[in-house]
Design a protein that fits this description.
186 residues; alpha/beta; 5 strands
């Protein structure tokens, strides 16, 4: 059986390009998820791993869709090999059942990890630079009137936390923080 696996990192991103490529390849079953590749426990990937049997094939659009960590990617490749499962990456034209494919997976997964590390480094440098200029980052605080209204609704005990948050346009974390601050001030 040929399984396709497609993944994007956030809910806002589209899977369409990957799904089109995998359907064009002709996979029998397609599993998709919207979750960061840095997490090892991904529900659809776990489901895929449970379904795989000797002789099956996993087709991905790109190695980076399977994972960004070299260690995890190589562990998955090793798991596939032990199970007798072939991994095919369309973008990189890799088939891990060949010695060349195994070498390319190792090299390209290291490059994926390098790319991720550079992104994290640039992000941290940007945050440090912004802090040096007096910018704190994060969301701006909610105005005092909104928070006062939320606290009054909470004290009235007529609405649930979710309803208060929806009415005031705040998150439950923001409401709980305001409640903790108020309690600490007393």
């Amino acid at each position: 059986m040929e399984f396709g696996y497609a993944r994007v990192s956030t809910e806002e991103q589209s899977l369409d390009r990957q799904i089109d490529a995998l359907n064009s390849y002709g996979v029998d079953e397609l599993l998709t998820e919207k979750m960061t590749g840095t997490k090892r426990n991904r529900p659809e990937l776990d489901r895929l791993l449970d379904k795989l049997r000797n002789g099956d094939t996993v087709v991905i659009e790109s190695l980076s869709r399977l994972g960004r960590s070299t260690k995890d990617l190589l562990a998955l490749v090793e798991h596939f090999e032990k199970q007798g499962v072939v991994l095919i990456s369309l973008k990189e034209s890799i088939d891990i059942s060949t010695p060349t494919g195994k070498l390319l997976v190792t090299v390209l997964s290291a490059l994926c990890q390098f790319e991720r590390d550079l992104t994290v480094q640039r992000t941290n440098e940007g945050l440090t630079s912004a802090r040096a200029r007096g910018r704190k980052g994060g969301r701006p605080p909610k105005d005092a009137k909104t928070m006062e209204k939320a606290l009054k609704l909470y004290d009235a005990k007529a609405h649930s936390i979710a309803e208060i948050c929806e009415i005031c346009g705040i998150s439950s974390g923001t409401l709980y923080n305001a409640l903790h601050q108020r309690a600490a001030a007393c």
